[in-house]
Every structure is written in structure tokens, then in C-alpha cells.
Amino acid sequence: MQQSFDGYWDNRFNRQAIKILPGEYFVTAGKEIIVTVLGSCISACIQDEILKIGGMNHFMLPNDKGYSKAKHIDVIDNSEAARYGNVAMERLINDIIKLGGNRFNLKAKIFGGGRVTNSSIDIGLDNIKFVKEYLKIEGIEILSEDVGDVYPRKVYYVPETNDVYVKKIDRLNNNTIVSREKDYIKSLKKSETESQVFFFSD
Asked: For tag attachment on the chain, is the N or C end more exposed, with fewer CB atoms within 10 Å?
């Protein structure tokens, strides 16, 4: 079951906005805009190009090795599981289909995967490789992308039109994104012992 979200009115886009965090995703057949901020994480924006049903996810790592489709029902309400790409992608696609979408009409745009920390582990690159391979296997065309490099991004996605607006964050006024990335890398080490894309600024 998709999580419930509190939205806010975005005057710039004149739409209701839904903000998602790592491990979350949102799917709609309506007019909402979906917003997230990415460091090394990836967001896939997927739309049924015929019915205009679409959504966006936000995942931090490529695979949850303990997850399988056979156990899907056991983890469907576990937001931690959707921090992993294989879970986040499956849930996003499945919810689009539940709203009436057709797998054969799906198109994707991908964002994020920046190297925003000095860690020896390039999680961003692993995430990029994962999402591209996943979409290739599923037969979903990637219409456009803005991935890699060394900066965070703020991404706005309008499923109705399949437009994506990207703001590259060159200077961080606070260390929220970097701190979140570092904390997650620490927990990882411990656990393992054609619509357009628009760029804009304020």
C-alpha cells in the first residue's frame, strides 16, 4: 500500500506538491508535482505515456539482498525496504499498474547518483548502474537523465506532463544532505562487516 503524504501548495508551479524522502515513492493519476532532494540517491520518474499516470521514487542503495518478490507481502509496509532500488522500482511500477497503467506504455527518466561525500565507496555510481540495468531488463526506455557528477539535486516531477525540473545545488547552506549520506554509509559498513528536463535557479 502506498504511503499517505501531506502536501503543500507550490505557487511556482501552481500545483499541489508532494515531498518524498529516502525510502518513499508517490504515484498519481492527478495533477500533483512530486519533489525530492538527491545526493548519491536515485529517483526514477516513470509514466504511462498514454494514460498520463506516473510517479517517482527515492532510493539510497541498489539491492536489498534479503528481498524477493515471493516475500513481497511481508515487506510491503516496511518503508526501510524501499530504500533499496530493487524494492523501490518494483513498488513504483506496480502502483502505476494498479492505477490502470500498462507496463508496455511506461517510459522513465532518472536523476541523482552524485558523489557528494569523500567516501571510498561510490554509492552514486552503483545506484546509476543498477537503475539503468533494471530498466533495461524491464524493457522500459529511459527518455532522459541527469546523473553522476559531484553535486546534489532538487528534483520536481509532474507525472501529468512527464516534465522534470532540476535544480543543481552547488553550495549547501547546511550539511543535511551530506550528513544523511555519511550516516547511511556508516550504517551500511556496520551491517555488512520525451518531455523535457528543465534546469533552473532561484
From this structure: C
